[in-house]
Design a protein that fits this description.
The chain is α+β, with helices and mostly antiparallel strands. About 30% of the residues lie in helices and about 25% in strands. It folds into 2 domains: about 280 residues, Phosphatase 2c, domain 1; about 60 residues, no CATH class. Strands 2, 3, 4, 5, 10, 11, 14 and 15 form an 8-stranded mixed β-sheet that branches. The chain is globular. The structure holds zinc ion (ZN). Zinc ion (ZN) binds next to α11. It catalyses: O-phospho-L-threonyl-[protein] + H2O = L-threonyl-[protein] + phosphate; O-phospho-L-seryl-[protein] + H2O = L-seryl-[protein] + phosphate.
Length: about 425
């Protein structure tokens, strides 16, 4: 009897046996339908009370539709000259980004549309905050995790790093600090700002490079209406797809990054669950520098569904902190290649753009998504309806218009067009230009 049962079991098993080659090819073809688990934790030590954060798991991709897939948002807002801009951004930015997403997209289309919606949402939030007439400004590092795809948008210097399962530590943001970013210094100077150090009595210059008027060390932020419009809210955006081994994101304000280097941060908390990892990083920062600044840290683990433990320490090897080794997705063979890379644990870069120019960031768009259901045009930034005569192409009068058609969308309302001009150092004319 027992033998019979064994035969039965073996037969059953044999019937389900798949040759290894087929298994590998199936793995390579896998669309990774299984979604990873997302575990997260946050820790903070306050000095000035100007750091704020947002952790919102399980946001509905299609609002009001519980059966739509979900995504998670993690963000840090490091305020300066007061906390109003940080609080305003925490409370409104997510809605403004989602408000800029076209309706009726598939999940892939939705991910593809995110970088542009992030730009619109950041600029809209800045515009709305400035209209309140309050001073203060904030950095923003805004991270959207949807399955294995991570999209990061940032202004300022609250860095986000990725510790991928291969043991590679990479930066998903750039620091918009005048001191460290020559390209941004050039942009600010060309738009009418002055960049220099603080002068003390006797003419000696001290401290980091700052932008004048205002004396801000950052070249991008939300708020800061008293500093100058060339301090722009246009975010650097990077979108990557993790391998199916997952990875760890560390998002933190400069209280962490001024105290400990990125690679040290990643290494010092490996193997700890997210909540403890965040605490550990704050502890390391305080140990190294004391509490000099608000220090806030969010750790997000993207974990394969069959491995619900925190990511283990990767094998010891020489870790060089280097810029991403990701492969660009551009050719038609890229998709096949991407799956192979994913299978061997390499992160795929889907999108990267850091230009401060709205004409470049909003792109040219002839899709019907630009018009509302009523057939009207819509401002690409603030999403208000425009009469056909009101829309001003983002490309009109732009030096980039040589390759784009000034009569093509996306379109801006007069207000947003004036803001765009001001950000590029042109005085708002108040005259409608078509
Ligand atoms: Zn507008």
């Amino acid at each position: 009897m027992a033998g019979g049962e064994g035969d039965h079991r073996r037969r059953h098993h044999d019937g389900g046996l798949v040759p290894l080659a087929a298994l590998i090819s199936r793995e390579l073809r896998s669309e990774k339908i299984e979604r990873p688990l997302v575990r997260y934790g946050c820790a903070a030590q306050s000095k000035k009370g100007e750091d704020y954060f947002l952790m919102r798991p399980d946001c509905q991709r299609i609002p009001g539709n519980p059966s739509s897939s979900t995504f998670s948002v993690f963000a840090i807002f490091d305020g300066h000259n007061g906390n109003a801009a940080a609080i305003f951004s925490r409370d409104h930015l997510l809605n403004h980004v989602m408000g800029a997403m076209p309706r009726g997209l598939s999940r892939d289309e939705w991910l593809h549309a995110l970088p542009r919606a992030l730009v619109a949402g950041f600029v809209k939030t800045d515009k709305e905050f400035q209209s309140k007439g309050q001073t203060s400004g904030t950095t923003v590092t805004f991270v959207i995790v949807d399955g294995w795809t991570v999209t990061v948008a940032s202004v300022g210097d609250s860095r986000c790093i990725l510790d991928s399962q291969g043991g590679e530590v990479s930066l998903l943001t750039v620091d918009h600090r005048l001191e460290e970013n020559a390209e941004e210094r050039e942009r600010v100077t060309a738009s009418g700002g002055e960049v220099g150090r603080l002068s003390i009595v006797g003419g000696a210059e001290i401290g980091p490079l700052r932008c004048w008027p205002g004396g801000l060390c950052l070249s991008r932020s939300i708020g800061d209406m008293d500093v100058g419009e060339f301090i722009v809210p246009v975010p650097y955006v990077k979108q990557v797809k993790l391998s199916n081994a997952g990875g760890r994101l560390i998002i933190a304000s400069d209280g962490i990054w001024d105290a400990i280097p990125s690679e040290f941060a990643a290494k010092s908390c490996r193997g700890l669950p997210a909540e403890l990892a965040a605490k550990q990083l704050v502890k390391e920062a305080l140990k190294s520098r004391g509490l000099k600044d608000d220090t806030t840290c969010i750790v997000v683990d993207v974990i394969p569904p069959d491995q619900p433990a925190p990511p283990p320490s990767p094998p010891k090897k020489q870790n060089k902190f280097k810029s991403l080794i990701f492969r660009k997705k551009s050719q038609d063979s890229a998709s096949k290649l991407a799956k192979k890379l994913s299978a061997v644990g390499i992160v795929e870069e889907l999108f990267e753009e850091g230009s401060a120019m709205l004409a470049e960031r909003l792109g040219s768009d002839t899709r019907s998504g630009q018009t509302t259901t009523s057939g009207l045009f819509m401002c690409a930034i603030c999403q208000v309806d425009l009469a056909p005569s009101e829309g001003i192409s983002v490309h009109a009068g732009s030096i980039f218009s040589t390759s784009s058609k000034p009569w093509q969308g996306p379109f801006l309302c007069v207000d947003c067009r004036n803001k765009k001009d001001a950000m590029e150092g042109k005085r708002p004319s108040g005259v409608k230009v078509i």
